[in-house]
Design a protein that fits this description.
The protein is an alpha/beta fold and 161 residues long. The chain has a single domain, classed as Ribosomal protein L13 (Ribosomal Protein L13p, Chain: A, Alpha-Beta Complex). It contains five helices and six strands; from the N terminus they run βαββαααβββα. The strands form two sheets. The chain has a four-stranded parallel beta sheet. It has a two-stranded antiparallel ribbon with strand order 3-6. The longest helix is centred in the first third of the chain and has 13 residues.
Length: 161
């Protein structure tokens, strides 16, 4: 008598599906373009690993990029620096923060997406066998002299390897 459920009923709106793992090789990518592509992958429900974060490029002259970042580092709490804001200095944490800025981080979807992001310096051994994705539209187009690497920025502002 109609005891059969409709297809998909009972699974609920959020069925437990394992996220697809995407490994992004960030070598020679422009930082902002890469971050927006990664944010889009995260919002689609993928688990994203960014490898080689120290080889990401930031467009512009080195002096202006370092000067802007040093100005950003001056922002501190009036009461005590331990209260934040906390400024990343490592290339992987800089990129994690950059991607976080492109996610709706106060909504549940953005919080869940940010938890699925992993950024790495170099390529960890377990990820070496995975197929790596690169975004052609996010690759640098000019000479390397027009860009500053994320590792160079990190070393200049206090990253100790």
């Amino acid at each position: 008598m109609g005891s059969e459920a409709a297809p998909g009923a009972g699974a609920g709106p959020k069925a437990a599906v394992a996220p697809r793992v995407v490994v992004v090789d960030a070598t020679d990518h422009v930082a902002g373009r890469l971050a927006s592509n990664v944010a889009k992958l995260l919002l689609q429900g993928n688990m994203v690993h960014m490898v080689n974060c120290e080889r990401i490029m930031i467009s512009g002259s080195r002096s202006s990029i370092v000067g802007e970042y040093r100005k950003f580092l001056e922002i501190a709490s009036v009461l005590h620096p331990k209260h934040g804001p906390f400024h990343p200095r490592r290339p992987d944490t800089i990129m994690t923060r950059m991607v976080r800025g492109m996610l709706p981080r106060k909504k549940p979807s953005g919080i869940a997406a940010h938890k699925r992001l992993r950024a790495h310096i170099g390529t960890p051994r377990p990820l070496r066998s995975h197929k790596k994705v690169q975004f052609e539209k996010a690759k640098i187009r000019g000479a390397h002299s027009r860009y500053t690497s994320m590792a160079d920025l990190g070393r200049t502002v206090g990253w100790t390897q």
